[in-house]
């Protein structure tokens, strides 16, 4: 073999590994860049390979992030029409359905939080809304599994502390059992709103009202629509952790836009508009950022991925409430440009980092969350021409079952059989926000009243 001179070798490398270039005015370019970034994201996933467990990302990723990633792939198909990952998604979702069909698989339940479960619930809800290909005929439909997730969480509503609300954790042995937070409560609210739009069943709208009123009463949703992370139930939710995460605001904005689309009410119009107004904190010079951790450069593994669901929820909100389009779209455009510009890391030059605000400079981090966030914000720019979400009576291909999941063995009924809990499990539970973990372990310094 011949050895190239160094400059020649470098030239050859650049020729084969061109950094990502996106032309945001060209749908073809957006599709092609999305495909490259999705392909890179799936380098981390081995669940569809021999010996792998479908739906599971390798350690150190937690179970929930596998669900989050599958959601990004459902969106990928929805936006681009590329079907190459559909079988992978269907296999993984059905594998993790669990015997109660509500994403409470025995391998995960001992440290599963409500928000962890809900990220899988969002997947089946999106699958129903986008008329994603159905699961095998001998398996419950996407929408019925979304209903089962709803049912399991609806009955976890807890009036012992704070006059209501969901606890963050499902089981009392987990860190954060007494914490009542926005990801868990906003998750249930989001799913209920979308189930209401899909099925027309008033019970889901009533659940939305219950959740919204409680979150507002406690202050998790402020009068000016900031969404704060959570509150300590042992203080009866009289004090708040004021940290704001993108995805919590996003799930509420999506829910409010869905409720507006069904009700056409000024109440939901104002809520959607207010939540969007308050989301300005998540942009710097028109580029999206995870403001609670990016400026300090200390986003943990979970937090590195939150801009993915935020982008997804923003795009979906424009679809349900088209008057938001001229407000949100310009920021998704500039954020996508900035995200793509820094996806030039690693030896492959298609590795994305966490921060998009550094003018095209890769921040040196990489992972599923970074790849997923860039993917979601870039492909979201195809939303304008994407098909409108369907409902049961308007093109839906998923048949509901309102009673699926009610025989679930979680809190309140027959306890699920669980493996003994180890210290590692306690520390490893679900979606952790660093601030909360520190707070729970090191006293209540994080609570700012
Ligand atoms: C939407 O479709 C129209 C007509 O096919 C096309 O001209 C336009 O570029 C598309 N826009 C996006 C953002 O995909
Ligand atoms: C549970 O874990 C075992 C052992 O790793 C694995 O064989 C099995 O497929 C897992 N089940 C699910 C639903 O993840
Ligand atoms: C706890 O908070 C709830 C809701 O704000 C309130 O209704 C209840 O009276 C409070 N309980 C105590 C013991 O203060
Ligand atoms: C509506 O939803 C509620 C709550 O899940 C359920 O009990 C009821 O059977 C549903 N109604 C119909 C008509 O499906
Ligand atoms: C929605 O409400 C607005 C004003 O409140 C009204 O002008 C409009 O006709 C309503 N649209 C529908 C579809 O009901
Ligand atoms: C949102 O911001 C706009 C522009 O500042 C303002 O006019 C509007 O009243 C705000 N809406 C809500 C509900 O906060
Ligand atoms: C709906 O779910 C319930 C509870 O799991 C089950 O008994 C029933 O057979 C299901 N109905 C249909 C039509 O699948």
Automatic annotation (TrEMBL):
GO terms for molecular function: mannan endo-1,6-alpha-mannosidase activity. InterPro entries: 6-hairpin_glycosidase_sf, Glyco_hydro_76, Mannan-1_6-alpha_mannosidase. Keywords: Glycoprotein, Glycosidase, Hydrolase, Membrane, Signal, Transmembrane, Transmembrane helix. The chain crosses the membrane at residues 427-448. GO terms for cellular component: endomembrane system. It is found in: Endomembrane system. SUPFAM superfamilies: Six-hairpin glycosidases (SSF48208). Pfam families: Glyco_hydro_76 (PF03663). It catalyses: Random hydrolysis of (1->6)-alpha-D-mannosidic linkages in unbranched (1->6)-mannans. It is an enzyme of class 3 (hydrolase). One of its GO terms (biological process) is fungal-type cell wall biogenesis. Residues 1-19 form the signal peptide. Its EC number is 3.2.1.101. Belongs to the glycosyl hydrolase 76 family. This is Mannan endo-1,6-alpha-mannosidase.
């Amino acid at each position: 073999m011949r050895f190239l001179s160094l400059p020649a070798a470098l030239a050859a490398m650049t020729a084969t590994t061109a950094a990502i270039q996106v032309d945001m005015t060209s749908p073809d370019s957006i599709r092609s860049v999305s495909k490259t970034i999705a392909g890179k994201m799936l380098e981390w996933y081995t669940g569809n390979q021999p010996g792998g467990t479908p739906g599971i990302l390798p350690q150190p990723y937690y179970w929930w992030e596998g669900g989050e990633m599958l959601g990004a792939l459902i969106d990928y198909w929805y936006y681009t029409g590329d079907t190459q990952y559909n079988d992978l998604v269907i296999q993984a979702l059905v594998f993790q359905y669990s015997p109660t069909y509500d994403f409470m698989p025995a391998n995960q339940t001992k440290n599963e939080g409500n928000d962890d479960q809900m990220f899988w619930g969002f997947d089946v809800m999106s699958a129903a809304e986008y008329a994603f290909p159905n699961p095998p005929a001998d398996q419950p439909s996407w929408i019925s599994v979304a209903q089962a997730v709803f049912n399991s969480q609806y009955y976890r509503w807890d009036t012992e502390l704070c006059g209501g609300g969901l606890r963050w954790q499902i089981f009392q042995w987990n860190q954060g059992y007494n914490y009542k937070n926005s990801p868990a409560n906003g998750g249930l609210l989001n799913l209920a709103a979308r189930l209401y739009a899909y099925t027309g069943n008033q019970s889901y709208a009533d659940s939305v009202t219950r959740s919204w009123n409680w979150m507002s009463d406690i202050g998790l949703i402020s009068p000016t629509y900031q969404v704060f992370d959570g509150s300590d139930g042992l203080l009866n939710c009289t004090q708040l952790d004021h940290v704001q995460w993108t995805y919590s605001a996003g799930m509420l904005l999506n829910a409010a836009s869905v409720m507006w689309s069904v009700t056409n009410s000024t109440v939901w119009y104002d809520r959607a508009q207010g939540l969007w107004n308050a989301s300005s904190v998540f942009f710097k010079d028109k580029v999206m950022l995870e403001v609670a951790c990016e400026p300090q450069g200390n986003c943990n593994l979970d937090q590195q991925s939150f801009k993915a669901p935020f982008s997804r929820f923003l795009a979906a909100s424009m679809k349900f409430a088209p008057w938001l389009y001229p407000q949100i779209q310009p920021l998704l455009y500039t954020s996508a440009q900035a995200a793509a510009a820094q996806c030039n890391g690693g030896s492959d030059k298609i590795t994305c980092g966490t921060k998009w605000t550094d003018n095209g400079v890769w921040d040196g981090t990489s992972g599923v969350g970074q790849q997923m966030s860039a993917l979601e914000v870039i492909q979201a720019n195809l939303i304008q021409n994407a098909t409108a979400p369907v409902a049961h009576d308007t093109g839906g291909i998923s048949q509901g079952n309102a009673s699926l999941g009610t025989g679930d063995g979680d809190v309140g009924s027959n306890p699920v059989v669980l493996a003994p809990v180890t210290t590692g499990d306690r520390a490893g539970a679900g979606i952790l926000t660093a601030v909360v973990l520190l707070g729970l372990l090191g006293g209540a310094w994080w609570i700012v009243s």
